[in-house]
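Here is a protein:
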Amino acid sequence: MRLFGWLRRVPLSLLIIVVGVLGFVALLNLKPRPEPRPEPEPPRPVVEVERVKLEDRALTVEAQGTVTPRRDIQLVSQVGGQIIESAPQFVAGGRFQKGDWLVRLDPRDYRNALAQAEAQLREAERLLAEERGRARQAEREWRDLGNAEANALFLRQPQIAAAEAAVASARAARDQTQLELERTEVRAPFDGRIRQTMADQGQFIGPGTPVADVYEDTLAQVRLPLTDAQAALLNLPFGDELTQAAQPSVTLHGRALGEDHQWSARLVRTEASLDPQSRMLYAVAELPEPFNTERHGAPLLMGSFVTAEIEGKPLTDIVSLPITAVFQRDRLYSVSEDGEVVEKQVRVLTIEGERIWVKGDLRDGEPVITDRQGYVSPGVSVRIAGEEESTPEPAEDEDEPAEPEAEGGV
């Protein structure tokens, strides 16, 4: 009764508003609420890739070095004397053959010494002949006395031995003097060229005095520094186990006579030890007849700086990729079949310009990311550039009212 009394005091208009609000709220609560839609997935990062193509081939190793002769020595005089004559080719750049004389010293003192030595030899031979005659005479006298055997002293055997030693000594002195006379002509020890002359006609030189710097010109060589990774790509000759046909071929590139040229050489040996400063292994390439223009097209001068391309040994299942595909020295990202980033470790073989050769756990056709490695990480889902993004179709809202059908009738 009290409630109805209170309601009678409430204005009718306010009561109508309250009832209307309560009815509207009730209708909202009775209407089924739509299921919340899932948040749309963010777009996947787009990456550039290159498909793996496994290859079987030999790689080329590049190194640089300076051309040097196989033999480069100081030519010295073995005897002393005054230079009385020099050969026409005894000039810087002059070419000589093995055995050619280059410098002649005054031989007169040595000829006189040779004459004295020969006289002493003849005197020693005369004394030996006399002692042998006395020994034969003593032997006959001993037999006349009726004795069977004579002792060595009676037969003058010690005197004969001394005379024979004197002859041998005199002959050795004669041979030595003859040798010194021959050495008054300083001769070339091999085929080559003169780098620098250090003595001239009229000059007096002593034994051991250098007369010229000479080098062999029939064979040039280049010392090529190799890293451990480069050496692993080559069939290097450690010793004599490689035949000439198996020695790696080397193409030398350089400039000669104002133009670019190339020469074909062979890798013949290694120095079989690491350089203590650079920790490099030095391999030696040889080029026969470096001055033969008919054979090589241009001379390869000593001291030239050249770039060498060394033929590598055959390798299997290696891959060429853009150099940007590899990061942190030996890592790359590939894309799995599910579109996720996978990190792989590879072995870097060599770099050729903007390409890098690697070997590792890679399959033919596998996509390798070539850029933006810093924007993705292993496990991240990515989209390969050029492929369409797959987006799920939106579900139809069941709570939306259906379109009213048009009423028929004419």
